[in-house]
UniProtKB/TrEMBL annotation:
Residues 123-195 form the Cation-transporting P-type ATPase N-terminal domain. The lineage of its organism: Eukaryota, Viridiplantae, Streptophyta, Embryophyta, Tracheophyta. Gene3D superfamilies: 6.10.140.890, Calcium-transporting ATPase, cytoplasmic domain N, Calcium-transporting ATPase, cytoplasmic transduction domain A, Calcium-transporting ATPase, transmembrane domain, HAD superfamily/HAD-like. One of its GO terms (biological process) is proton export across plasma membrane. One of its GO terms (cellular component) is plasma membrane. Belongs to the cation transport ATPase (P-type) (TC 3.A.3) family. Type IIIA subfamily. One of its GO terms (molecular function) is P-type proton-exporting transporter activity. This is Plasma membrane ATPase.
Amino acid sequence: MNFLHPPASFCTVQCSFPHSPHAPSRAWTNTLENFYICGRLTLAAFPFQLNHHFTSTLLLRPLQLIFEVISLFLSLLFIHLHVFIGNCEFAGLLCLTEDFDVFLVEMAEKDDAMEALKREAVDLENIPIEEVFENLRCTKEGLSTEDVNRRLEIFGQNKLEEKEESKFLKFLGFMWNPLSWVMEAAAIMAIALANGGGKPPDWQDFVGIIVLLVINSTISFVEENNAGNAAAALMARLAPKAKVLRDGRWNEEDAAILVPGDVVSIKLGDIIPADARLLDGDPLKIDQSALTGESLPVTKGPGDGVYSGSTVKQGEIEAVVIATGVHTFFGKAAHLVDSTNQVGHFQKVLTAIGNFCICSIAVGMIIEIIVMYPIQHRPYRPGIDNLLVLLIGGIPIAMPTVLSVTMAIGSHRLSQQGAITKRMTAIEEMAGMDVLCSDKTGTLTLNKLSVDKNIIEVFTKGVDPDTVVLMAARASRLENQDAIDAAIVGMLADPKEARAGIQEVHFLPFNPTDKRTALTYIDNEGKMHRVSKGAPEQILNLAYNRSEIERRVHSVIDKFAERGLRSLAVAYQEVPEGRKESPGGPWKFIGLLPLFDPPRHDSAETIRRALNLGVNVKMITGDQLAIGKETGRRLGMGTNMYPSSALLGNDKDESIIALPVDELIEKADGFAGVFPEHKYEIVKRLQARKHICGMTGDGVNDAPALKKADIGIAVADATDAARSASDIVLTEPGLSVIISAVLTSRAIFQRMKNYTIYAVSITIRIVLGFMLLALIWKFDFPPFMVLIIAILNDGTIMTISKDRVKPSPLPDSWKLAEIFTTGIVLGGYLAMMTVIFFWAVYDTDFFPRTFGVSSLEIPADRIMSLDLKKKLASAIYLQVSIVSQALIFVTRSRNWSFIERPGLLLMGAFLIAQLIATLIAVYANWNFAEIEGIGWGWAGVIWLYNIVFYFPLDLIKFFIRYALSGRAWDLVIEQRIAFTRKKDFGKEDRELKWAQAQRTLHGLHPPQTEFSERSNHTELNRIAEEAKRRAEMARLRELHTLKGHVESVIKMKNLDIDTIQQSYTV
């Protein structure tokens, strides 16, 4: 029992003093509350724990006596001050001693109730709903703010317990991964295995390795902590909300601050925020498959319990919260089940690259051990130093940090563009997305509907267009409106007209199954009526005279659709039984309203950009096929659209009846009349054809398709269920946000891919280069200088996460074969650069003779002095350091590296690092590291050598791309990308032959005969005639629009469109 706080309901208790003629003021109530808290603190000070019964019985009387003494003392004090405080206050104070017993008992009872709820001693799920309110000490009017605050102290926030990870352990965790293990093994080698050959342990290398590990871990810890804070701030924007009744008003609050006793409103698309019992209203359909495994939605009526985490599939109702946080059904289950770590695709890529680097180092070490000891009989200690060089220099220790930080920074940039990433790895998948299935309403269009009253079609005698609008407005919401409700009610002179003169009995909200809304009401004469609006087919099914009006209804719908207008049907019936549950009399189909949803001003341009980026945008709409085609024509995305029946193979169109459904989906520009289950089927079949598929959605029934898609995108104002199932949540409407996110994702992915190629190249160049120096010339490079190279490289390479890169113009993805091949070839070239440089310095006088620098050539007796070895080490150090870091400029660009300007941060870090490296090579005389300064002459020669041999790196890069992709060299000259998706030019021919065979099989194309030439000629004539006919139809349809008419007149009269636009607005 919590003795440190007063009971949660303390502040709402109405203290009554039946024996007193006066009630104490709020000041005395506050004083009383303070007394109560002091008493609790006194009880809490006991050195033993008191059970609840002991507290409420044995200690209640002593506590009362203490308060009576304090009250009497204050009474005597206030007798002398009664002139100032008033007789009323004084009388109220005196009555405290008389009624305090009653007050304390009431406080104890309320405290007992809350503690019993916390211990779950009361089964709130099964008792009658009236007893629920009694046990929760609340009413259907909700709680007050004071109640909520007190109950939050007792029950805590409505969220699961989060384990707080020690920051120190988190920091050490960055030293516990396979790449760090290799470095830690090198540190052990430096002090254990290197302790031989008459030399002490290699303490400087040991300290250097530890410093390198600490630097990398510190950078990783700081960057990931910052990224985690940024991600937490982003996810806070996606925190679930709940509509809750508090202080007599409905407000939208964070679901985390719900408490037992709160009254909440839940509706279609909501994720139920806490365990609750339903109040009066229509039954709900609840999807609780995530909790109970039930595959089908279950129906819940008033009085039934619903679980936190379930999704509302249909209906709207109020409920009272009975459990929150860890006390919910979901919270208990989550508490009992340990979390499992799933290895994602990104982690698999990291592991594969890390394993490749480790295996490359292992192979190099094995070759060195075999050659140095059994064959060359090298001393023990120099051999260990050479092994340390491979271990320290070959491991890309910064790779996990660079890639993770790059994604975290990219995620933050996406959020600034209006796309919040819930799953980091969705960035790489969006970079490879080649098909986007986009909803029409609100994404391609503005979702700002308007109704043209002049062309409203009336189907019932005695009804005018104004009546149709009024009936549609009555079947609409006046608050929490969607776009259709807002458009309909907005047509009235005063929105209050929608409910004027009637009494609302029951409102049926919209749901994806029925696709309509309905209002049951009583008029001034006491008669009950019902009016409904919704999808024409659904309303037509209600009509008693469907067979008589069906042809005319479809004709009007088609007429509206040809103009790009959606149709909204309205029906009306009388309910003579006078009960809301009654089926009522026959439905009368009274009219059709045309709804116009204009395309967004940027949709056409955005679709054009998407196609240029290799992303095929498919329109998925629930509207009629004609509307979809008209919208597609206006947006330039094509009119090759089909009805949803084609997805099931039920379409009767001869042009597509023989096509496989998979091919139909892949070739189509969109589908109309689509239900949520169709969206799931479209995504599944596109994925089966190896497409990376994105899907947009906003409704609860879109959740399965969003979850199935590679990139589920919840559009702005999506329901909680859609957001929960998605990978990316948009905060801004429109398709342009998605395309901007695609470009940003490709830039992020390009940075990660550039670095992985760089990391593999450096591993190969270190392992191969220093292995050849050690085995051919028996040159022992000091391990400490490899540590310096690694530290400077890590400091520079961290800036790649903010580098300026050009996004790939085509969808891109991880291609490990391309990464490894490119890394091996570039790394091998750099290794040969070092080998050739060493040979030129060590075995020839080319550089002294050409540039006049001091000779580092080995004497004729082939005995290398210590000074010569130190200077050679300095020269090799500078050559390796410069060209290793310069390689990042080659891998970061898809074109010539000197054309694409790097980011200032990367360029600045490179210059600073190489200035330090140059100063070390010129001036350092470190006996512990066995290097000696070589002067500015040699430094200049080494810089010149690296610059000369740097330029072929771009040509090698282009050659690798050509070898892997088969692309011609003219694409390189035209400044196309250097790393593209693998292209198989024979694939299109094979697909064409397969398609022809399929058409022949299904009778669409007859097999070739001896008259094939004449048949081909006839076929060409038929195709030409068909094309002319389609062009004429498009021209005539275009003339029926105002814009088309104006443009045709302009063309015929050869007018200047710019001049006309200055005078008129079309």
